[in-house]
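Table S2 (continued). Query chain:
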Amino acid sequence: MMIKIFLLWASLWAGSLGALMGQVRPAPAPWTIDGQAPEWGFKARPEPLGWSWALAQDDEMLYLGVRIPELQQQQQILITGLTLWLYPQGKKRQRRGITFPLGMPVEQQPADTETLEYYRAERQWCPPIPARPGLELLRFYEQPEPVWGEALNPGGLSAALGCDAEGVMIYELAIPLAALPGLEDGEGTLDLAFESGALGRPRDLRGTDAAGGTYGINSQRGGWADEAARQRQARMDRYRAFASPLRLRLRRLSLPSETK
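Corresponding output:
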């Protein structure tokens, strides 16, 4: 019993999109969802995000493991959250979502470049400690509203974050096949996509002088108003590189189902 996977990765920063189609390998034993990766047997791929991944299944569960090495990406995920979208049989109307980790409440997210610099410099991101416990299920089990699972195993689904000795974030997820329409017997097609949020806009990107003039590129004489303006622009450039959301352009996919 095998599921074909069409795995979509999109870059938070480069805007690139990659795709992989293949079969999920059988899991020799149920995975332990604990944020560690000894059972994965990774085959690293040059994905746009720099992530590597592993997929496996048994008669009841689909297992997904992801290694996220970049500190900046780890920060983005822990601040804004990460949602995995699943499309059983490639159908949008059957889409299910799993948000894990949940990220910080919007009002607690860094809102300007100075705050962001503090988060980058001071906060420890590995081991990853989610700002809010639990996960959010979207459109699972015929529920019209999100289902919150504080114990991280609603309906048999489980998730965990961890960190290895090299500071790489470990993301693990186990999804019951029974929760994916048309895949209950472990055969068919499944599209996957990841999505993150975006950080709030900075409150003051350029600043003003005492006379009300604006510092920045468009100053008088076409040059920089002062060194402070140059520094503000440099902070803004770093902010833009960090705060862009992960967005996927969803596409209709027509993939043949596996046959026995």
